[in-house]
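hey all, quick one before standup. I had two proteins in the batch that finished overnight and I want to keep them in one place so we stop losing track of which output belongs to which input. First protein below, input sequence then structure tokens straight from the run.
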Amino acid sequence: MKDVTLGFGEALQHCREESQLTEDKMEEFFHFWREDFKFEERALGCAIQCMSRHFDLLTDTHRMHRENTDRFIKSFPNGEVLSQQMVDMIHACEAQYDTEPDHCWRILRVAECFKASCQQRGIAPTMEQLMAELIMEAAER
């Protein structure tokens, strides 16, 4: 899961301006998996939407593109194991918030639901895992 998270996060800098995410809010985004992360900023939902579009993970109606999302997840280590479970969780979360007309708010609520589902199933990465990976990547550059 940490590999998928880090891979998805690569689009954040690309999407910062489009989603009007401030530097401070962009910094907060790296704490997505922390228990106390707050899903309160619409701009964060817009950033997630942009990042999803960057990887072609959304349909024209701003819903998850199942095949592309499956392929994206499978492109990472352990993706074969996680893909179906993650796609199903995202789809279930989308169904819960399908009536939200604002795409950024809806995607933010779906992300919050997805995070909670991952934590309940014990597949959410820890902040320690993510930080260790980021440090290792920085050292390789």
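OK second protein, same deal, sequence then tokens:
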Amino acid sequence: MPQKKKTQNAFSFFMLDYKKKHEALGVKFPGGLKDVANACSAEWSRLTPGQKGPYVAQAKNAKVRDGINDERYTSEGIPVSFIERMRRRKQEFEDNMVDYIKRAVDPSKGCDSLLQKKFYFLHVNRYCCKLCMDGTSDFYPAEFAIAEFSLRQGVQKTYHEIIDIDLPLGYAADIRDYSRQTHKIPRNPSCGQKNFSIMYERLRKFLEPETIGAELPPLYTANSFRAVVPGLLSRMAATAGQTVDIFRIYSFETLFFHIRNAAATIKNSTGFPVISFAEEEIRKDVFDHAPGIACDYHSSIDGTTVHCSLSIVIRWAYTICDYCCIDLDIDMQPGFHCPIDKDSIAIKRAKAALDSNDVRRIPDQAEVFHSFADITGVTPEHRLRTSERTWKEELARRQTGRPLQIIDHSKIRNSNLQEIETAPPRATTNSHSFSAMTRKPQRPLRLPYSMSLAMKGVGSDQLPTMSEKNFPSIGGRGGGS
């Protein structure tokens, strides 16, 4: 490591000036600058900032001349000032994002404004992540999908591409393992698009703003994918001589949080108290196995539709509709607001059953009870009646029931068991015992110590004798040879 250059501060230049003036007057400093420092330190402390100014300027000019700065660095060699600038820039971007989203979904503009507002959801799958020399990460895109969404119309149009890109050397194992675990897109797919210029033009046309020359609308993606998206957009922008800054990548969770609360404000219902509620709903992904929304490639491979970019952006739209459409009195259309196999009649029935404090639709209670009755045979009335009992009522019911009756088989007269004679009821001391019911068997039972029905009608001469021939010994430690 090269030796760090020594710097001269303002006091050093003051000492040199002090030494020069006093040596002209005949003062000697045998100890060199050490004696000068001891002699002039008191005078230096009495100087005003204005009097110290010339010496401070000399120190700064010396650092510039010698190429010396006071920059601090992290253990990785990154300037602390750069990190601080990036932190302020990121915070400013987040503040601008929140302000934009709040204005876009402002409930004071009316319900129609919120329903007609268009939003664009973007998801990008990757092959691998390469660490660059400047400490940043470069993600190589494998697939992306974008969906245009509004609360009134649902998902209106989508654009999806699988990408064939030249991958870096040394990442073959990472690419293979990540692909197998998620999207299962191989290297150099036959259906992949190689030309980023074509993809850029298609994306620009998809995002064409209403006003000519206006900036592109923001793209919303989940927080877990915000670092991956620039890997795609930067390559697209580079083909047009642009930078990735022409695209604004905003948080989908933040949008979901504010849309839900705007819908709740309009309906005067309960919204999300904190943004973590929206983050948790996106993490749960309740529509992850909705059919018919994945691309053709992933639809042909088992277990991959949940990782398909096209499926993911549509599921994000369904999640917003699932929380907001009921409050906004939107008739949810299967395939646009909810999965195609969704029972629209059940949705309307649940919508009528909701009160103003609910934030989610609830299942129809009678439908749930009848489904249990079909499976178990227990009627809804009986299930309700037993579930409404308190413990005291159940204990009283058991105590007032008939005591347990013991069937004495020694008093059974015949083997047909057309009647059952029982001993007189015997009182029980167990207050928790259940009441007994007279059991009428469906088929005859054999008397104790009697012949089985299978052996009836067989003569004694026909029975096999207990001989070694008929019943040979098994052998082993416990028997004969």
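Flagging for whoever picks this up: The CA atoms of residues 195 and 382 lie 67 Å apart. The beta strands are 119-131, 137-150, 154-162, 219-221, 249-251.
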